[in-house]
Design brief:
heterodimer; A: alpha+beta; 2 domains; 17 strands; B: alpha+beta; 4 domains; seven-stranded antiparallel sheet; about 45% helix
Chain lengths: ~325, ~650
């Protein structure tokens, strides 16, 4: 029952939360409630006041009222500790499924008061605390478990504080508009994949130049760093890429057909592994999927393109 | 809250907790049994030793020691209930809790319970320095809480300690308002066994030596604040009890039932005063003669004495009015007459016969009384605290043989003689005199002012006070007593000469009186603040008694008012933006007004681009400011005052 009520409550919260990169914490989006120790203090306060009434002890009354006043003031102090802070969500890098994604949240303090013990986390019980100096920034990192490939929405992040006395806890929720792209989990295929070598004809023609410099051309995004002609760059001739002949014969197209007979998720994982292996051995590779084909290429950007297609398949 | 992120192994937390515990337990060490005090000290030291060695005690050892301690407390008090046993037990458990503290939860529990332990000390003492101690104690607990809830832990008082001090200073005015408004109850919520030690004071019996024994006590019995006229100190007879039954050795109080309604006697009010009585663990309270109306919370008896319903275990404050009562035309009932003439058979026969014989030689009761007083004055009757002890027939022995004694000897013998001569008489016990405190404008009555005098019933006149002790010749008053009897000015001198008041001399006495004035303000006005005082100032505001709801309104208004004031004060700090950001936000607002759809989430370069695309006119005005902002933000250098000023002006021009 409580669980379902919680779920309803949080889906209501999520609906109200705007998806935004930067959230300024203010009256409207800061919530505050006593902590369990706040309730304990209330109990002790009542005990003190009852005992003081009974023994007609004015000193006890004084102590009780000081305690009450401290409790009252701590509402403001705790609230103030959050108010005026800006929470910025950063884009997260992609990870493979079941790896932990990291979510970076920056706390920006544009005010002249220092903030102590600001907790950032997914739930109030799992925050980690950082201090934010006046007019400065602090970075908080949350690690997120990933389960499935594809775009993962970033869950609601809570920003909370119990400073200074732990009597009240003030918190605010923020939601990042950025999604995290989760690549499929790579699994090596038990049998070698059938690849189609598409560049055979041309390859044979240029076979001799295995290690020879064939051509110099302008650097294009995606060219392996190894092929950049650093000597030319040092002479301020710009970034030039060396073209070698020797990748003839290592061009391959990884095709969906080769794994189509496996279960879909497994097939995607096998292809992912194959793409990673191809990239690792610096081959030129292409990807042929049922809906789309990715042309031959190499390098991080090409890899990302392939993995993204696989993630979203 | 994530308590795992706030472990108590952080810097300085445990030593701080040990220090706080020691501070909170400090006053209790003077009141709880010595072994409990010693054990708590040992536990604190043990915790420190273990902290240094990074060790924790095994749980089962702790459990055994805790059980032994509970047994010890039970053996000590024969109960685990009641105030003293409870406080003993809780202080032990408090120290044990720290010994086994491992987590945030334990530390937070210890700190919040510290507030309660702090208050238990106030059940033993409400002295003025305890007020200071309260502030220090609360401050230290707050420092502990701040350190516990800050990721850095405790790093000395200078940094994070400030917030506790500021909070406490802000809490004090709220506390004062709540203190004034919080509704007080007139009686306790439930009755408690009185387990405080017996206070000294006058008892309801009098035998030779009983009042003399009090003379050595310099304790304050009560303080008196007169409103308006003040009687001369020789006339300050503070009536407490009437002792009428005599068994040959001891005088006893008669059992009376309280007077219902008002006394139907012609009387005129004389002095109005307020008494602040120290606890004496007895029921009787004292008033300036004559007593008529009972103060609130007390009964009046037909012998013109007051009794309080409950024992006075806390300081008790009451207002009263002294009267001149005209007894003429009154007569004693048979019962009263019998009591006022009662004499034990077969003892002190010599005095009885002597008195009857002497009465025959005088024409009237009054002449006889005067003769007896001059008899004391002219014969070798001495006033001393250390009379020889008389074994049997104490009055015969005193009157004819030793002729020395304290006021109870004289009062007892005088009443005995009166009754033997057929004159109704009784002993009155109370206090005589008072010490004036010019700094607080009030009078102090001490236990050493305890006194016994007599009353005789004269036909046609009624009860008349006779103080036979005052008839002793001054030369026969013991040296010590003459000095200390200075508070009874005119005593042993001629009656009626009001010596007036001489300001006390000597620096020490001066300081002592000043200090007592401060203490009296504390105990009377602050600690003695009660429902009556609450209503009395509410009445001055025009609010009638028993309109309780005004207290509630006051309380609510206090909390709301405090909320507004402190909400403003505290939150003001959070809104203080760093100046560059402040002006930039102002700039964005201006641009929004000029229909440029920019917002905070955009970078300043994007805003610049957007402005250029939207409106050339706005762009020409806003570009300098935006460019300056970009310069400030992206060059990452210290913002000079000039640059800031330029930026501010550029924003203003937009």
């Amino acid at each position: 029952m409580i669980k379902s009520a919680k779920k309803t409550f949080f889906s209501w919260v999520d609906k109200r939360l705007p998806l935004q990169v930067a959230t300024l914490l203010k009256q409207k989006n800061i919530y505050i409630l006593p902590t369990r120790y706040g309730w304990l203090m209330l109990g002790i306060l009542v005990l003190i006041l009852v005992a003081s009434t009974n023994y007609q002890n004015n000193m006890g009354f004084m102590a009780g009222f000081i305690l009450l006043a401290v409790g009252l003031l701590s509402v403001f102090y705790t609230f103030r500790n959050l108010k005026g802070l800006e929470v910025r969500c950063h884009k997260s890098g992609s990870v493979f499924a079941t790896e932990d994604a990291t979510l970076n949240v920056q706390l920006v303090n544009n005010t002249q008061s220092q903030r102590f013990g600001i907790g950032v986390g997914l739930t109030k019980k799992s925050v980690s605390y950082v201090d934010v100096e006046a007019e400065s920034k602090s970075l908080a990192t949350i690690s997120l478990e990933t389960h499935r490939r594809g775009f993962m929405p970033v869950p609601r992040v809570v920003c909370s504080t119990i400073f200074p006395f732990g009597i009240f806890e003030a918190w605010s929720w923020v939601r990042s508009p950025y999604q995290i792209l989760v690549y499929p989990k790579p699994i090596p295929c038990p049998e070698p994949l059938i690849t189609t070598n598409t560049g055979i004809d041309e390859g044979q023609a240029r076979e001799k130049g295995a290690e020879d410099l064939h051509n110099l051309r302008d650097y294009q995004a995606g060219d392996p760093i190894k092929q950049v002609m650093w000597k030319a760059y040092a002479r301020e001739r710009g970034l030039l890429s060396k073209e070698f002949e020797d990748y003839v014969g290592e061009q391959q197209t990884l095709s969906w057909d080769s794994v189509a007979h496996y279960e879909k998720e497994l097939a995607i994982s096998y292809l992912t592994d194959a793409v990673l292996a191809a990239e690792k051995s610096q081959q030129v590779y292409g990807l042929k999927l049922p809906q789309e084909s990715i042309a031959m290429g190499q390098g991080p950007e090409h890899l990302h393109k392939c993995l993204k297609s696989l993630a979203l398949l | 809250m994530n308590v795992k992120q706030l472990p108590i192994s952080r810097q300085g937390i445990i030593p701080l907790l040990i220090a706080i515990q020691a501070l909170v337990l400090l006053p209790l060490w003077f009141y709880i049994p010595v072994w409990i005090s010693a054990l708590t000290i040992v536990l604190l030291l043990a915790k420190y030793a273990m902290y240094r060695r990074d060790a924790t005690p095994p749980r089962w050892v702790l459990l055994i020691v805790v059980l032994l301690c509970v047994g010890g407390v039970f053996l000590q008090f024969k109960t685990l209930n009641g105030r003293d046993a409870g406080i003993g037990l809780i202080s032990l458990m408090y120290a044990f809790k720290l010994l086994e503290a491992r987590s945030y939860r334990d530390a937070a529990l210890i700190l919040f319970i510290s507030f309660f332990i702090l208050v238990t000390a106030f059940f033993y003492s409400e002295a003025i320095w305890m007020g200071l101690y309260l502030l220090i104690g609360v401050l230290s607990i707050l420092v502990g809480l701040v350190a516990l809830n800050s990721p850095r832990g405790f790093q000395g008082l200078s940094g994070l300690g400030k917030i506790s001090g500021v909070t406490l200073l802000q809490a004090i005015p709220i506390m004062i308002l709540l203190f004034l408004f919080f509704p007080r109850s007139a009686s306790p919520l439930w009755s408690m066994p009185s387990d405080s030690q017996a206070g000294s004071g006058i008892d309801d019996t009098m035998s030779p030596g009983s009042i003399g024994a009090l003379h050595t006590f310099d304790d304050i019995a009560f303080r008196v604040d007169f409103e308006g006229k003040v009687p001369p100190r020789s006339e300050m007879y503070w009536r407490g009890l009437v002792l009428s039954r005599f068994d040959g050795f001891t005088w006893f109080k008669e059992r009376h039932s309280p007077v219902r309604g008002e006394l139907e006697l012609p009387m005129t009010p004389t002095y109005q005063y307020k008494v602040q009585m120290e606890p004496n663990n007895r029921n009787w309270i004292f008033g300036l003669e004559e007593l008529a109306e009972a103060p609130k919370g007390a009964y009046l008896f037909s012998d013109h004495t007051w009794l309080r319903r409950r024992q006075i275990t806390q300081r008790f404050i009451y207002s009263a009015q002294a009267y001149d009562i005209d007894f003429s035309g009154q007569s004693l009932s048979e019962n009263q007459l019998e009591r006022a003439l009662q004499l034990p058979r077969n003892s002190n026969t010599q005095t009885r016969e002597w008195a009857a014989e002497q009465r025959q030689k005088h024409s009237s009761d009054e002449a006889f009384i005067r003769w007896i007083l001059s008899y004391i004055h002219q014969n070798q009757y001495r006033y001393t605290l250390t009379p020889r002890v008389i074994e049997v027939d104490t009055i015969d022995g005193f009157w004819f043989d030793t002729q020395e004694g304290f006021c109870e000897h004289y009062a007892g013998a005088f009443v005995y003689i009166m009754r033997s001569a057929g004159i109704p008489a009784r002993v009155v016990a109370g206090y005589q005199g008072a010490e004036y405190n010019p700094y607080g404008d009030y009078y102090i009555v001490r236990q050493s002012d305890a006194h016994a005098w007599t009353e005789v019933w004269l036909e046609g006149e009624g009860w008349r006070r006779i103080d036979p002790t005052a008839a002793i010749h001054p030369s026969r008053v013991e040296e010590d007593l003459r000095g200390s009897a200075s508070s009874r000015d005119g005593w042993f001198e001629e009656f009626g000469s009001d010596m007036g008041f001489d300001a006390p001399e000597g620096l020490l006495q001066n300081l002592a009186l000043r200090w007592d004035a401060i203490q009296t303000f504390w105990s009377e006005t602050v600690m003695g603040y009660s429902r009556d005082m609450q209503f009395s100032w509410l009445r001055k505001l025009g609010i009638k008694r028993h309109q309780y709801r005004y207290l509630g309104y006051g309380l609510l208004a206090t909390i709301i008012l405090a909320g507004f004031i402190f909400g403003y004060l505290v939150l003001r700090g959070a809104q203080k933006l760093e100046p560059v950001t402040k002006h930039y936000l102002r700039l964005l607002k201006k641009l929004q007004k000029l229909d440029i759809p920019c917002d905070r989430n955009m970078g300043p370069k994007d805003v610049l681009k957007l402005t250029r695309e939207s409106s050339q006119k706005v762009y020409s005005r806003a570009a300098p400011a935006l460019k300056t902002y970009i310069e400030i933000r992206y060059q990452q250098q210290e913002v000079s005052a000039d640059l800031l000023k330029r930026f501010k002006q550029q924003v203003s021009k937009v």
